[in-house]
UniProtKB/TrEMBL annotation, chain A:
It is an enzyme of class 2 (transferase). This is E2 ubiquitin-conjugating enzyme. PROSITE patterns: UBC_2. It comes from the Eukaryota. PANTHER family: UBIQUITIN-CONJUGATING ENZYME E2 (PTHR24067). GO terms for molecular function: ATP binding; ubiquitin conjugating enzyme activity. Keywords: ATP-binding, Nucleotide-binding, Transferase, Ubl conjugation pathway. Residues 2-152 form the UBC core domain. Pfam families: UQ_con. It comes from Oidiodendron maius (strain Zn). Its EC number is 2.3.2.23.
TrEMBL record, chain B:
Pathway: Protein modification; protein ubiquitination. Residues 522-536 have a biased composition (Pro residues). SMART domains: IBR, RWD. PANTHER family: RBR FAMILY RING FINGER AND IBR DOMAIN-CONTAINING (PTHR11685). The keyword Iron does not apply. InterPro entries: E3_UB_ligase_RBR (IPR031127), IBR_dom (IPR002867), Parkin-like_IBR (IPR054694), Rcat_RBR_RNF14 (IPR047548), RWD_dom (IPR006575), TRIAD_supradom (IPR044066), UBQ-conjugating_enzyme/RWD (IPR016135), Znf_RING (IPR001841). This is RBR-type E3 ubiquitin transferase. Residues 50-74, 315-336, 519-568, 612-633 are annotated as: Disordered. GO terms for biological process: protein ubiquitination.
């Protein structure tokens, strides 16, 4: 029960004062564990202009266990799997870094930052990570291409 | 006059509601003034009980050392120092006598419980009150006086500025206790937002982390830690603030200290967690420590699998937490690894089932002197060790006293152990009387009758290699001094005829490894025509295979011996009365023991003075004697 209460609080916090470029709501009003997030591709990244739908899932054990984030909109990014799952790998959500007093607000901001600054050493997609490291112009071109293909005007 | 006194008392009671007016005297009252200085006060408790030490102004110290309530040791001065936030209150008793304020001074009495402020200082403070009354022109002075006391308390009566307060040791507990209670009381009144449930909570239902000071509500901590301990997720038993443990780890590694981010069992109990849960935590942690230590030795009993008792990771007994001191122990273990260790280091005792076993061969404890070889984890020897063990079984005889295996390279069967100087028979391991070792071979019922020269050429397949035969003169310069105290033979009787052999054929690994060397001082060898053939060779397998009575079953071997040596043996026989060789002569044995011990003591004494080379080796044959090494694995 305390989990529900905390989630409700955090939801109130982020909906009343959402991070720039994000719209946050529940997938289903009766279930606070699944959040629906629409994130604008941040300025300064090849994803700018795109609108990315994310699913934030809070486990039953939340906040003792970290939430998970999936990109419902396909995104070509070193730290997000380029498939239907759109699984994301981010430090704050790893079991050993997550602390019960970590906040969803921070998770969302970290996600946004990840789009601006990928972490190629911790990559899920090696091809984009390679390009990011070794051929930045090509990486940007590819990312823009896929953003246009999946995240703009959909 | 009455009115003035009454007005002042009423006034004070309004300002200080905690003031208590005496039941008997309406013009007397007492008030407790809390001593809660603005900054922490460094309090020193001299280790020796020199009675009540007056407050001594001591030079300021660096403020950086130690947090609130943490002991800071001052080894140079042998003083214990604590930084306290709260000190026991100052009690003030006020009496307004008749004639106050115009004629009589107010009477102030100050005290503290315990007396952490010295009487003389309190007297001084009391006098200040009187002085104020006089200087104020005999008017109402009580409020002003209380106010001045409160101001003095705020700077801890002049001890807030790093100037340490010295308090007798006997009040230490009371003062620390007061500080803890007052701190807790203040904490309980505060309100905190728990970072987990995000609710504001009163301090009384919160816990402040001892190491980092972060505050969470007790319920969230209980939920989280109980869950983590139940799941065996020990690493999570740390502060719940993101990055907190990491930050502290970095700070500590800068200081060169080891990180300890996990909570201590005592803190878990303070939160509080259930005792059973904390015990589980301690046990799991102990197990994890053992598992992460590659030097841990486990009990060979299949049903037990406990770890051997170790100083490094002591088994927790209830909740007593044992801090392991890893750094040093690790290097020790590295050092002793692979080296030949004294038998004592081999003894392991299982912390669970108390089984005593050998850490090398994983068999039940066999004493320090039994030779054993390492077993692999699954209880098997390596091929190399197996071969060595086989060889030892086949070609050595253990000393009956200390079990050190000896391999004979040549000569007669009268052996003297290099380790313990026991005289024994190479064939049957029987003790021999040092005075008359040959009796054993001259008695018909010993099983070794007339077998002194059996295996004369040495025991083992490797013995012949590099064995130059009987023609070479002894080369004393080749003697290696490996165990000096083990090499004396006091025999007057002509020792068996032996021939020279190079100490260790270089090709043989076994000999290089061998810690055991047996040497016999012997008279010059009688030149012989040819190296002795190996007369017993065809029977070796049988001899060794037959266990104990194998030697007894053999026919007397003298028949095979060349005539010359046969003669020598006969001479020996002639000099020795035939006796019951197999029966150990206790008296003689003890006599020998005493002699030996005396000699060793003498040797050690001289060795301590670096004069061991002056020891009388008590042999006139020293110059021409050949000393033999019989290297054995």
């Amino acid at each position: 029960m305390s989990a529900q209460k905390r989630i409700a609080k955090e939801l109130a916090e982020v909906t009343s004062n959402p991070p720039a470029g994000m719209i946050i709501g529940l997938v289903d009003e009766s279930n606070v564990h699944n959040w629906d997030i629409t994130m604008d591709g941040p300025e300064g990244s090849p994803y700018v202009g795109g609108k990315f739908k994310l699913l934030l899932t809070l486990p039953v054990e939340y906040p003792f266990k970290p939430p998970t984030i999936n990109f419902k909109t396909r995104i070509w990014h070193p730290n997000v799997t380029f498939d239907e799952q759109g699984s994301m790998c981010i430090g704050i959500l790893k079991g050993d870094t997550w602390k019960p007093s970590s906040r969803i607000m921070n998770v969302l901001i970290a996600t946004q930052n990840l789009l601006i600054e990928p972490v190629p050493d911790d990559a899920l997609e090696t091809s984009s990570a390679e390009l990011f490291k070794n051929n930045r112009p090509l990486y940007e071109k590819e990312a823009k291409k896929y953003t246009a293909q999946y995240a703009i005007g959909k | 006059m009455e009115g003035e006194r009454q007005v002042e008392m009423d006034c004070l009671a309004a300002i200080f509601p905690e003031m208590v007016t005496d039941a008997q005297d309406p013009y007397s009252a007492s008030i407790e003034l809390p001593v809660n200085p603005n900054t922490t006060v460094k309090v020193l408790f001299p280790a020796s009980a020199e009675g009540s030490t007056p407050i001594l102004p001591t030079p300021p110290r660096s403020e950086s050392s130690g947090d609130n309530g943490q002991p800071v040791f001052q080894p140079a001065q042998n003083l214990e120092s604590h930084n306290l936030c709260y000190l026991p209150p100052l009690q003030l008793h006020i009496t307004l006598p008749e004639g106050y304020p115009s004629e009589c001074a107010p009477i102030f009495k100050l005290s503290t419980t315990p007396e952490w402020l010295s009487r003389s200082y309190l007297d001084e403070l009391q006098d200040t009150g009187k002085l104020m009354w006089e200087e104020g022109g005999h008017t109402e002075v009580v409020y002003g006086y209380i106010d001045s006391l409160q101001q003095a308390a705020e700077i801890a009566f002049g001890h807030s500025d790093g100037k340490a307060l010295v308090v007798p040791q006997e009040f230490k507990i009371a003062l620390l206790d007061y500080d803890i209670k007052a701190t807790q009381a203040a904490f309980d009144k505060e309100t905190f937002e728990c970072g987990v449930c995000l609710d504001p909570k009163k301090g009384s239902v919160c816990h402040r982390m001892i190491d980092c000071g972060h505050v969470f509500c007790v319920r969230c901590l209980q939920d989280f830690y109980n869950n983590a301990i139940t799941e065996g997720d020990l690493v999570s038993v740390r502060c719940l603030t993101p990055g907190c443990a990491k930050k502290r780890a970095e700070a500590r590694s800068e200081k060169g200290r080891k990180t300890k981010s996990q909570l201590s069992p005592s803190e878990l109990l303070q939160i509080p967690l259930e005792r059973e849960m904390v015990i589980r935590y301690v046990n799991l942690k102990h197990k994890a420590d053992l598992e992460s230590d590659k030097n841990t030795i486990y009990c060979p009993r299949k049903w037990c699998q406990g770890a051997a008792r170790s100083k490094k990771h002591r088994k927790p007994d209830g909740l007593e937490e044992v801090e392991s001191d890893e750094g040093d122990a690790d290097s020790d273990a590295e050092e002793s690894k692979g080296k030949f260790r004294a038998g004592k280091d081999l003894l392991c005792i299982c912390e669970d089932c108390s089984y005593a076993f050998c850490s090398r061969c994983y068999q039940g404890w066999h004493g320090e002197f039994t030779l054993c070889v390492p077993m692999t984890k699954n209880g098997e020897m390596t091929e190399e060790d197996k071969a060595s063990m086989e060889y030892l079984k086949l070609h050595t005889t253990p000393c009956p006293t200390c079990a050190a295996p000896a391999q004979k390279t040549h000569g007669c069967n009268h052996m003297i152990c290099f380790k313990c100087n026991s005289h024994f028979c190479y064939l049957c391991s029987a003790w021999l009387e040092p005075e008359n070792p040959y009796k054993h071979y001259n008695s018909q019922n010993t099983g070794c009758y007339m077998r002194l020269w059996e295996l004369e050429g040495g025991d083992g397949d490797d013995i012949g290699i590099g064995y130059a035969g009987g023609n070479r003169q002894p080369e004393p310069e080749e003697i290696e001094i490996e165990a000096e105290e083990g090499l004396i033979e006091n025999e007057v009787l002509p020792a068996p005829v032996v021939t020279d052999a190079p100490a260790a054929p270089p090709a043989q690994e076994l000999q290089r490894e061998g810690p055991l060397v047996l040497r016999i001082n012997a008279p010059p060898p009688i030149p012989r025509a040819a190296p002795a053939p190996e007369p017993a060779a065809p029977q070796r397998g049988q001899r060794r295979g037959n266990a104990n009575n194998r030697r007894a079953n053999l026919p007397p071997a003298q028949a095979r011996q060349p005539g010359a040596r046969g003669g020598a043996v006969r001479v020996l026989h002639g000099q020795q009365p035939v006796g019951r060789g197999q029966v150990r002569d206790e008296a003689a044995f003890q006599q020998r023991e005493v002699e030996h011990q005396e000699w060793v003591q003498r040797f050690v004494r001289m060795a301590l003075n670096d004069e061991e080379d002056q020891v009388e080796w008590d042999s006139d044959e020293e110059d021409d004697a050949a000393a033999w090494e019989i290297p054995v694995r």
